[in-house]
Write a structure and sequence with these properties.
Layout lengths: L5 E8 L7 E8 L2 E5 L4 E4 L4 E4 L7 E5 L4 E4 L2 H9 L4 E3 L2 H8 L1 H33 L2 H18 L8 H18 L6 E5 L8 E3 L4 E5 H6 L3 H16 L2 H20 L4 H13 L6 H17 L5 H18 L2 H6 L5 H4 L1 H16 L1
Parallel strand pairs: 5-8, 9-11
Antiparallel strand pairs: 1-2, 1-7, 2-3, 3-4, 5-6, 6-7, 10-11
Bound molecules: zinc ion.
Length: 355
Amino acid sequence: MRQSAARLTGAYSDGQSSQSLSAVLLVDATGARLDTGERQIIFALEDLAAESRIGNTPRVIRLNGSGRFVTRDHDQLDGLVTSGVVMGENKGWIHRLESHWHTVLLSIFGLILGASAAFVWGIPAVAKVAAMALPHDTTAAVSRLSLDAVEQILGGDSALDAERQDELRARFLESADTHAPGLPVQVEFRDGGLLGANALALPDGTIIFTDELVALAENDNELAGVFAHELGHVVHRHSLRQIIQGSIISIAAAVYFGDATAGASILAAAPVWLADMAYSRDLELEADDYAYEVMTSEGLAPHHFSSMLERLTAAHYNEVETETEKESGERKDYFSSHPATSERIARFEARERQK
Ligand SMILES: [Zn+2]
């Protein structure tokens, strides 16, 4: 229905005094007439601008230069606006936003903060719950996949003779039986290949020692310390957490950036997450705490682990330093200044002093 004439009741204020008078606004296609009973004012249609409707709150019609008229006659006013007789002000909500920009800015800030918090704390928390909830079958399947991936950067079969392997394996498995009974732990030895001196804990409980790590140890107590640390990673399912966490971030990034190649990068990065030195600081500290408990209960001094850690980081430092870097002095003390490693060594040494 086309509505071009209307009689609106409401209140008029002239914009100069705070007084408002009850009035009637008569509008048709030719113009508008405001009637307060005492006086009548004629307006051209161009002088009228109606604010947008917000529910049933009283609406303002601005009378250009001559104050405002407030009415609750929504249906009639809507008719005038939709038929184009009275101009509508669509900037109603924008106006509100402008006048509440502090709130808007604060909301955006809150949103960013919330998203960041979810990223920093939420994802690791979800990954932890998911990792602990997964049944052993799943972890075994993930392990088979990750072992395949890891074998590609490891250097193949161990050069250690079978007797030496059995000797170390027997000692480690006895320790695992005592501290984590029922956990299906297996001990494997491999040539380190690209990983060099390292130890890895796969999700299913397979713990891999590289020949280079065994060679680097000054005695078997140091290796027992490393084993206890890796056992901590298995007990707390760190590798699985790391993989899930990395996947969530990659998947989120893929969704966000619409990047289909992200799936491939998840698989490509899996071996890197499994290498022991790629764990986050929190996970390393958790595994260190576990190692400390195991070592103390076995009567091993904590320095067997911290000195091994020191030698291990030094070995990696020398390995990765290029000739140019050696000449220029760049990367000097990278590992000793690396917060995670130096913090871990300091923690172990502090505990030793407390004993
Ligand atoms: Zn570790």
